[in-house]
Amino acid sequence: MVRVSGPLVEIEGGGSLSMLELLAVGPRRISAETVAVAGTRATLQAYEYTGGLKAGDVAAPTGGELSGLMGPGLLGGVFDGLMRPLSTAPMWLAPGRAGSAEEQTVVAREWTFRPEAATGNTVYAGGILGTVPDSGSVVHRVLVPPGFSGRIDWLAPEGRVHALDPVAVVGGRAVALSEQCPVRRPRPFLSRHTGSVPLHTGQRVLDLLFPVARGAAAAVPGGFGTGKTMMLQQIAKWSDADVIVYVGCGERGNEMADVLHGLSELDDGRTGGKLIDRTVIIANTSNMPMMAREASIFTGITVAEYYRDMGYDVVVIADSTSRWAEALREFANRNGDLPAEEGYPANLASQLASFYERAGRVTTLGGKTASVTVIGAVSPPGGDMTEPVTTDTQRFVRSLWTLDRDLAYSRHYPAVSWTGSFARDGETIGAWHAGNGDPGWILRRSRALALLAESDRLAELTEIIGLTSLPGRERITLMGGRLLREGVLMQNALSVNDGFCSAEKGAALLDLVFDVVDACQGLVERGVAATTIEQSDFGPVLRAREETPPSDAAAVRARSSEVLQRLVALQ
Amino acid sequence: MTRPDADADGSALPVPPSTGFAALVSHGDVRELRGPLLVAGGIEGVGWDEFATIDMDGGERRHGLVLEIDHDLATVQVLESTDGMSLGGIRIRFEGRPLHIPVGAGWLGRVCNGRGEPLDGGPPIAGTATLPVSGWPLNPVYREPPQEPVLTGISVVDGLTTLVRGQKLPIFSVPGLPHLTLATQIAAQATSGGRSFRVVFAAMGLTHADIAYVRDRLEERSAGGELVLLLNAADDPVIERILTPRIALTIAEHLAYAEDHDVLVIMSDMTSYAEAVREVSAARREIPARRGYPGYLYSDLATLYERCGRAKGHHGSVTIVPVVTMPAGDITHPVPDLTGYITEGQIVLAPGIAARGIYPPVDVLSSLSRLMRSGAGENRTREDHLDVAAQVLAAMARARQATELAELIGAGALSETDRSYIQYRTSVEKGLFNQGRDENRTLDDTLDRAWEALSALPENELTMVSTAFLKRYLPARDDRS
Ligand SMILES: Nc1ncnc2c1ncn2[C@@H]1O[C@H](COP(=O)(O)OP(=O)(O)O)[C@@H](O)[C@H]1O
Ligand SMILES: [Mg+2]
């Protein structure tokens, strides 16, 4: 070792190292990864605190790449960016902790293996070998790992096994219960699907206006306090995915405790267990080593791909990708790389792409349809949406949910801006809804977007000419915009009734607003004064979301007829 | 290395790594001096992040931290600056480990400089153990979500942006406003429901007049053995400020987790701290991110602010109130911006409100305590607290609109309701927000004042509070029908 500057370590005179190779550095054997090789010199990125490393210390190659041990036991667990379990780690995270493959609490734990194949069969990567019934809320499938194929020479009988025990011998090679997966390489699959199937998030403004397809990528940019974390936590709780991977990347420790406690208390309606049992938490908070933060994003997506390959729909949530990009920048700067914008390395865009492009709805090697949906928060400095991470991210995502500071400050949550957001798959998702029993979805969405735009335009006009100068028809439109914003788009995450919203209730709330607007327009046409209409009590419309149960569309429709009757009486 | 602070349940306070650091090494070969940096040559066996003691001919002693090791060169950041140094006549002793300080109750009642050396004429601080000042990250699995309030006796804080045990809640201000007065008042008055409460006050870059004010105002708490004062004055070495908050937090963590106190750490002014970080970065010729601040400022600030919290199996807590003055009042400046991204809310002071003679001049609409919902309300403070706070804020938003409208079209043209909002604003600012600099209000007093202010509004405007609370708390008004 010849040079140490924070996480940057340079070594000299070593044998041939390959890029991405993992080394154990110094007397405490902290992990570091090869990021540049030049002759006999190599640059390493250390994943832990490098205090005490000296010129002359030795860096020993481990022969492997940065990887994580994937197997039963991930669901419900909390891991750091290097996939080391935190649930069993000490209170203070001093450097030099062992990886999960050496961690006693991981390797000593017993699981039930139930074979689902037969000795003598020929199998290929992705084929099923057996299941582990006692791991989390989804059936854990043990698959033939990528790169393996051939005859099953031996298969473990039903019984108790440990993470590193072999459960089969395939084509002469042993397959262990758990698999060491390199995190920087995407796990292989057969083919990508076209066509969109929506992910139901339970958040109305997303599901009704800016939906995201399973296997797509979405980003949530917003300044501090605009509600990024809250929104991501809501999606972790309520979206209809099979497995959630929540990556806390350079954010608050208290929030990770929040996610852990919150999900441990909530029931999973589909399994009867707790929501935490379908969730893997990767926690690399802002005060944990910066380079492990860089790795945590890839660790998280690799966990997601691991479950995708079992045939599940997985959502990876990363809060915040900006902190990950900062880790990239920090290292690039120390390495003397030529900076592009705001100090970020010139390859920022391709690095972001290497993350978001791992999203996809695919046919797995085992022939199942499954998906990885990626949702990342973006934290623009100073709320400046023109900064490089935000602008580059916008190019790679299918859905963009921009959070607006003014909306957040006026306590309009979730503060998703209807002018600054998009859903590139809106139309194909509309087609899916049409084919799945809701032909009205497309029309509802376009009408809602039009109403928002029109009422925004009128609101600006009103500031100049005053409300009373507007024709009655336009005053109703203005009022309709308010009903739509406050009665449908706003959603209180802390409320039992309103925190989650079913597709049917969401549709019913939108219809309620449209019906009321139509009725009011009818009244205006028949000569009723706009002021009279404006002064009638729209409380039942605005409170419907809070006062009806999360999946009760019928209760919303009942309100509709009640309100409409009262309006008719104004005539 | 022993684990002197291992407590009952076996989890220990941060201890330095047991291996990896060399023993004491001494050098006299100084190759370069640049800004706060010193480059020593011919070194061997010196580790990254080691602490160094620098002896100059003439007997002066300075201190430094190793920022980089490159072959036989070590770059050292000199805390007291390199002023007056020359390439010859310097001996550097590398301590073989990062900076450690003694910790324990010995700090209480003491007044020290920004490096922890006594200014009060007393002996050097003796501790029950020594710990590295940078600490270790708290395992997130060990964190207990913050739940109980820290009451400050200041209405606008307790009532509307409740501080919670284990929270980090900054004060955003601009030069010239009484943020230091407010921070000092919080330090003087804060309590946590009868539990043992301690305060560590870290001053960075304060003027001597300000320091005198802080010392004087906190005299009582200091004499009672509840306070640690670390003072780095405006004319003290700038680089020393990088150390001051770390020393404060190391003392605080020990008091919280080894001695079960609720500890409040005030850090004022974080903008001065960040300037010191920027100065070192510039001297190292690092590539800046925004406005000359290094790209790692976020992570650097996080390693300070994230040291707040509560931990499983421990009774104590660390609560942090940093003070950030926003240069030119710009909230998008990197220091307030990055602080806001890390902290759990913010208390914002505004010149316009100060100009109306209100102390503390908190802009309640831009202020937020993100943890308030878990630290206030039934079983925490009072059953009506969250409702009444939401109502006061909603009414303030409406009152602001009404005031703006009145400026455009004249108060006479306002509706009666709007006029009542303008009246409400006056009564809430005078009755609830405005408070004496030494005035310590109970929470009941604060909430009752909030109700009193709300009674200026027609009752049907109070939609955010339940009818049960209206009945119980809203003061009767003669002219109310
Ligand atoms: N959907 C919501 N319902 C209720 N409150 C919300 C909602 N979204 C955000 N908030 C409020 O905004 C605060 C900040 O949200 P957060 O998600 O932490 O912001 P960010 O991650 O963007 O900094 C929260 O503490 C909460 O008070
Ligand atoms: Mg957040």
Automatic annotation (TrEMBL), chain A:
Q: Please tell me whether the keyword ATP-binding is annotated for this protein.
A: yes
Keywords recorded for this protein, A-Z? ATP synthesis, ATP-binding, Ion transport, Nucleotide-binding, Translocase, Transport
AAA+ ATPase domain sequence ranges: 214-400
The protein's matches in InterPro entries, at most eight in alphabetical order, are given as: AAA+_ATPase, ATP-synt_VA_C, ATP-synth_a_Xtn, ATP_synth_asu-like_sf, ATPase_F1/V1/A1_a/bsu_N, ATPase_F1/V1/A1_a/bsu_nucl-bd, ATPase_F1/V1_b/a_C, P-loop_NTPase
Do you know which Pfam families this protein is assigned to?
A: ATP-synt_ab, ATP-synt_ab_N, ATP-synt_ab_Xtn, ATP-synt_VA_C
Keyword Membrane on this protein? no
The record's family statement is: Belongs to the ATPase alpha/beta chains family.
Family matches, as NCBIfam families: PRK04192.1 (NF003220)
Name of the protein in its database record: V/A-type H+-transporting ATPase subunit A
Could you tell me which species this protein originates from? Pseudarthrobacter enclensis
Q: What is the lineage of its organism?
A: Bacteria, Bacillati, Actinomycetota, Actinomycetes, Micrococcales
UniProtKB/TrEMBL annotation, chain B:
Report keywords, A-Z.
Answer: ATP synthesis, Hydrogen ion transport, Ion transport, Transport
**Residue intervals of the ATP synthase A/B type C-terminal domain:** 375-473
Q: Where is the ATPase F1/V1/A1 complex alpha/beta subunit N-terminal domain?
A: 35-89
Keyword Aminoacyl-tRNA synthetase among record annotations: no
Hey, what's the signal peptide range on this chain? none
| Residues annotated as domain ATPase F1/V1/A1 complex alpha/beta subunit nucleotide-binding | 153-369
Question: CDD domains, alphabetically?
Answer: ATP-synt_V_A-type_beta_N, V_A-ATPase_B
Q: Which PANTHER family match?
A: V-TYPE PROTON ATPASE SUBUNIT B
The similarity annotation says: Belongs to the ATPase alpha/beta chains family.
| Function of the protein | Produces ATP from ADP in the presence of a proton gradient across the membrane. The V-type beta chain is a regulatory subunit.
Q: Can you say what this protein is called?
A: V-type ATP synthase beta chain
Q: Which organism is it from?
A: Pseudarthrobacter enclensis
